[in-house]
Amino acid sequence: MDDRSTVDVADAAEEWEVRGSSTPFQGRVTGVRTEEVRMPDGSWARRDYQTHPGSVSVLALDDRQRVLVLRQYRHPVRQRLWELPAGLLDVPGENPLHAAQRELYEEAHCKADTWRVLVDFYTSPGGTDEALRLFLATDLTEAEGERYQAHGEELELVSARVPVEELVRRIHAGRLHNPTLITGTLALYAALHGPDGLDALRPADSPWPARPFTA
User: Fold this and answer.
1) Which of 110, 150, 165, 185 is most deeply packed, by most CB within 10 A?
2) Which is it for the CA torsion 188, 194, 198, 199, positive or negative?
3) The dihedral of CA 107, 108, 112, 114: what is its sign?
4) 155 falls in which pLDDT band (50, 70, 90)?
């Protein structure tokens, strides 16, 4: 392990040599890709991972410092998890801000006047190429018009507004498990208690190399 104190602690693009790439499964949205990758010692190792179009999520914070959360059933883990509004980037090159605004309306019937990028991350980089942009939405109001007609598992969505401090306590107590909710809550908490507050966050239209988009 390299423990040099002068190393630049920032992720960098890199691509190791690949021989052979196939997609043994392709579903409606995601697939599985199999590749052989050359290791540093010259050997070849097989890597199987999920291909994913990317996602957006919204941490909606009201004027009482409460976060809008939704409870939804997630079949792979057989649990109802508390989460943030989120959705897929279904259209290649889709503007992530527009997608996030749509998800906030559809899942919570809310809109926000102020948007910032809270954090960008890979959801599980050892097993999928899914990249997620998480926005902070503030100055919330109820959306106009009729509510979006939910279907499938979204019919049983339950919403709540929880103070940031309470979410942090529940995360540390092991009572919340959704990675986007955890990442967003702790990132928000750090920003709120940092020297620059929310001004430290990036504009909502900041470049996103993991999923380039059009304006």
Assistant:
1) 185
2) negative
3) negative
4) low
Q: Is 17 a catalytic residue?
A: no
Instruction: Select from 18, 78, 74, 75 the least CA-distant residue to 49.
Output: 18
φ/ψ (deg, to 5) at 144: -85, 160
Residue 176, strand partner residues = none
Work out the mean pLDDT of the chain and round it to a whole number. Answer: 94
Pairing, β 110-122 against β 131-142: antiparallel
Q: Give the pLDDT of residue 154.
A: 67
Quick one: which of 46, 50, 41 has its CA closest to 23?
50
Question: How many whole angstroms separate alpha carbon 8 and alpha carbon 12?
Answer: 10
Q: Are strands 31-38 and 86-88 parallel, antiparallel or unpaired?
A: unpaired
Q: Which of 142, 144, 154, 156 is catalytic?
A: 154
DSSP 3-state of 158: strand
Give per-residue pLDDT as tens, 114-150: 999 999 999 999 999 999 999 999 999 999 877 766 6
pLDDT of 49 > 70? The answer is yes
Contact in structure between 91 and 125 (CB atoms under 8 Å):
no
Helix (H, G, I), strand (E, B) or coil at 27: coil
Q: What is the pLDDT, as a whole number, of residue 185? A: 98
Distance CA 68, CA 188 (A): 13
